Each structure stands twice: as structure tokens, then as C-alpha cells.
Amino acid sequence: MNAIHEANRKQWNVGAERWKERTDKRGFWNKCHKEPSLVLTDSELEYLKGIQGKTVCVLGSGDNEVVFALAGMGAEVTSVDIAERQLEIASDRADSLGLKISFLRADVTHLDKIENDSYDTVYTGGHVSVWTSDINNYYSEAVRILKAGSIFIINEYHPFRRIWCEDSNELVLKYPYFNRGPFEFRTRDELPQFEYHWTVADHIQTMISTGCELLMIEEHGEEGDDWNKTNLKQLPQNLLLVGKKNATE
After folding, report:
1. pTM
2. C-alpha distances in angstroms, 115 versus 13, 104, 107, 151, 224?
């Protein structure tokens, strides 16, 4: 495994219980299977109409709220994450909700256990690309496992929000926008953690170059973040891309 991805896997496993407490406090995971609009935007739901009975793969599933929402909408969902502890927590929660979901521990840049053209939809979002050292491999694998003519949805934390100091009352630039990283940090458990700051253009161009027709670009949300002390209100919070895999010749 990629050494940086392995370091990030370890820190996500160690921090999984804290993240579980955070999602418990948020209170969406046990409701979103009945109220998908809690975790999916109107634009996403528009592209996910008719998902009942279709196969969906969620990459970098994390707290699995989107996974539960899609399962509640009747999709056959595979949840993929690099951290086994995250998946264990999600599996227990799925059982408590009566949801049938397949869970797979894998690095999103190496989905060797999944065959080509396996899914009707691939979804990824939240904070996944920031942990990924090769966005081209990441999106290439997503498109590889997607059926031709099917939809690839990316709803990522907006890259423009990653360039600021996190503990300032004012917007103070910390990272040049075009510096992709890696950036190394230490978690509260004193474990190394690595981030990559891919640009808006990186996301768009990589989706196109890996074999998708771009159907929609949308920037949405302007609220602050509960984990960031800097006031980022009125800045775009998320970048939503929808692509359709090109038909093979």
C-alpha cells in the first residue's frame, strides 16, 4: 500500500470512535435512510432518481450517511473505505437500521477486488480527495468500475476552503492555492497525517480525462465549519460534479 495512504488509514482507525461520537451528535445517520435530503442535495437527488434496484458504489464512505441514504432509496450499495474500523461501525449501524449493504475495505486508488463495469452509479464526496495522493488513479478507478453511460457523482469539500489558517478571526492565507502538497500534520494521538489540496481544475480535468462527459458543475453551501475556527461563511462550501462515463468503442 502507498505509505502515505497507510499512515492516513492508521489515523482514521484510531480516530474512528471520536468520529462516531461526532456523527451521533449530528444525528443524521439513523434518519437519512428515510430522509435522504438530510445528506444529499436537491441536485444530487435529481440525478439519483430511479436509483431503486440499481447498483451503487460509494468510495471513501467514511461515516456512511450517504450509503444509508442510498440504501434507504432502494439501491444495492457497496461501501468502500480504507479504514476497517470505520466500516465496522457502519456495519453495526446498518444492522440496527435493517439495511442490507456490502462493505469493502480498499484504497480508492486500487480497487482490484472490483471488476470493470460493475456499477450503475459511483458516488464519492465529503473529504476524500484530500487524503488521496493521486487524484488521477482515484478517478480512473471510479470510472473503471462504472458501467458505460452511467453516472459518476463527486461532491467534494470546496478546494478554496483549504488554503486558510484554521485558527484566525480573519482570512489569513496559509497555503498557496496551487501547492497540492503533501502537507504533514500530527493528530491529537500524535500520528502522522497527510493531506493533498487538489484544485477545482484538478477535479474537473481529471473527471474528463478519465473518460467522462461532464454534465454539471455546481458550487453550493456557504455556512461555516464546526471544526474550523476561521469564519468561512459566504465562501463556497462544496464542489459538485456530475459526469457520464463515455461509451466504449
Report:
1. 0.95
2. 27, 13, 15, 17, 40
